[in-house]
Fold this protein.
Amino acid sequence: MNTTDSPGPDQMPARPTESATADPQPASQSPIVISATGKPHSPSGPWSWTPSNLVAVALLAVLLAGLVGWRIYHNRARVRDDLTVVSADVAPAAELIDPNMASWASLARLAGIGPGRAKAICAYRDEFVAAHPGQPAFTCPSDLEKVPGIGPAIVKGAAPYLAFHANATLAPAQP
């Protein structure tokens, strides 16, 4: 018999095997990759954003923005300076209008007047002519301010298109 202090084979502690201590790498976990700079990193998914990747994407974005800006600058719409913008519902009067004889439709074409104020002008004119036969209701642009809803600003805008005929036949206009 061996009288040494070492335990016998039946008394030896169990030695762990390599398969018990080493964790096998699961298939879903990606390996650690050494980049060209020599630094280890773990890519997240199939795309890895290295500094050089980020610089390339930034340069492409700047290039794309520059191309879009160049196209917009060189293909912008050209607008002539001599064009006059006119509202679609109110066209300027082609000739001078006498508010003492014009229909409400003709008056409605004046700047700032419109259909409602034109009908108010005709109603005021008809009442004035009925009360003062032979006299015109309007002898100058400022006389239009007597009509409710018409002030100095509207008169100023319509004045270039108004004409006042002193010898006009004064009769109520037909609508």
Observations:
- Residues 92-175 form a domain with the DNA polymerase; domain 1 fold (CATH 1.10.150.320).
- The two ends are 140 Å apart (CA to CA).
- The beta strands are 33-34, 40-41.
- Residues 168-172 have pLDDT under 50 and may be disordered.
